[in-house]
Design brief:
Keywords: Membrane, Transmembrane, Transmembrane helix. By secondary structure, this protein is an all-alpha fold. It is about 75% helix and about 0% strand.
């Protein structure tokens, strides 16, 4: 019986240690042998592995959030604490991908390839970003090519993790809870570039009221890049380089599609609202922490809660009819998202009066028509694709499920 347990790793709950270090030792003792993707994985190994994925993404989340704020204050970023925190998450991910790749446990071929490709893209982008900074100076926008590669690499990794957990985790609250957490990380990574405008508008207003958040060295650097003195033009170039149409299309249109995917994959009726609430909860925790440390803070995108709610309501209205769901979703997302974003933008004049600050970035509201058409078309087109993927996953589960003894 002992030998069989050592081979399969099928341990009783009382035998499994609580300490992550002890669990790691036990895993390597029982399971560190080469295997093809899709190897049978004991429940405790699967849960431990994916809990470490959540921990890794949490390190990267905190590091990237602090890093965004850091770059609106300081010019220097070599060995900056936010980078070091982010690196901890990256190292954990490298170890996890190596374990999945070598043992074949906890991931099938498709999800493993996404994890591997995402990690490779991220590891290529990181030195390219450093080289870009060395050659061209500090990159003053979150939307630059090297930064986008970092987001894309992380997003591909997260997609692989979501697929792996979706396939191997047993149905239940734990499966749904972890999925919601993974979708919240995916949302944050995708939404992250919008932070340029959310930090930027407050940075611009701070300079205009005579209390700049950025150090003089950073302001001088930004001004020299365009051959200007440190004036309104230079500060706007540093803080608000992105056109006003980008923010709402990315924050409402793209995020709505992510909420729809979260709702579809979890089957939880309030998935969109929950993912939005989790993300906003994190932003509301980080806001006072950054402020307390003396770093710049951002506008908080409260309107995302309305977008998540719109997606959930669309699924309830559609009730399994893809085109009806997509049509209702496009209408509700556009109405709720743009409506709530407008209301949020009025908080400053309604509550703070003439205070020289803002409660939302500038928005080009003509993009509502683009959002309506784009979300409707993409959501409708995604229906056949998601059904095909669901059918494929169901068939593969049947093939990999062993008959009961």
């Amino acid at each position: 019986m002992t030998k069989a347990t050592e081979v399969t790793g099928d341990l009783s709950p009382g035998v499994i240690p609580r300490s992550p270090i002890a669990k790691t030792r036990l895993f390597f003792k029982l399971h560190w042998h080469r295997g093809a993707p899709g190897q049978a994985t004991p429940d405790w190994v699967l849960n431990f592995c994916y809990s470490m994925w959540l921990a890794a993404f949490a390190f990267k989340l905190v590091g990237s959030s602090w890093d965004m704020s850091w770059h609106f204050m300081w010019l220097r970023d070599d060995l900056a604490p936010p980078h070091l925190i982010n690196t901890v998450g990256t190292v954990i991910i490298m170890v996890l991908v190596a374990i999945h790749s070598y043992t074949g446990m906890g991931a099938d071929r498709r999800s493993l390839r996404l994890m591997q490709i995402g990690l490779v893209v991220f590891l290529i982008a990181a030195p390219l970003d450093v080289i870009n900074h060395r050659v061209n100076g500090l990159d003053l926008t979150a939307w630059s090519p090297s930064h986008m590669m970092l987001y894309i690499g992380t997003g591909i990794m997260q997609a692989g993790v979501i697929m792996g957990w979706l396939k191997y985790a047993k149905p239940g609250r734990a499966r749904t809870g972890v999925l919601l957490g993974l979708w919240a990380f995916f949302l944050e990574n995708t939404f992250f570039p919008n932070g340029q405008q959310e930090y930027g508008i407050l940075g611009l207003r701070a300079w205009e009221r005579g209390a700049p958040e950025a150090e003089p060295e950073l302001l001088n650097f930004a001004a020299n890049q365009i051959g200007h003195p440190v004036d309104q033009v230079a500060v706007e170039y540093f803080t608000m380089p992105i056109d006003d149409w980008v923010y709402p299309l990315w924050g409402i249109g793209v995020m709505a599609l992510i909420f729809a995917l979260a709702r579809h994959t979890t089957g939880f009726r309030w998935a969109g609202t929950t993912v939005a609430a989790v993300y906003l909860g994190y932003r509301l925790v980080m806001w006072p922490l950054l402020l307390g440390m003396g770093f710049p803070v951002s506008v908080v995108p409260f309107y995302l809660l309305a977008v998540g709610l719109a997606v959930d309501l669309a699924f309830r209205i559609g009730r399994g009819h893809p085109l009806l769901t997509a049509g209702a979703g496009a209408l509700l997302v556009t109405a709720f998202g743009y409506g709530m974003l407008w209301v949020q933008s009025q908080f400053r004049p309604w509550i703070l009066g003439d205070a020289h600050t803002e409660s939302a970035p500038p928005v080009a509201y003509w993009t509502a028509a683009v959002c309506l058409a784009g979300v409707g078309a993409l959501w409708a087109a995604a229906g056949p694709g998601t059904r095909a993927v669901s059918s494929l996953l169901a068939k593969r589960r049947e093939k990999t499920t062993l008959p009961a003894a």
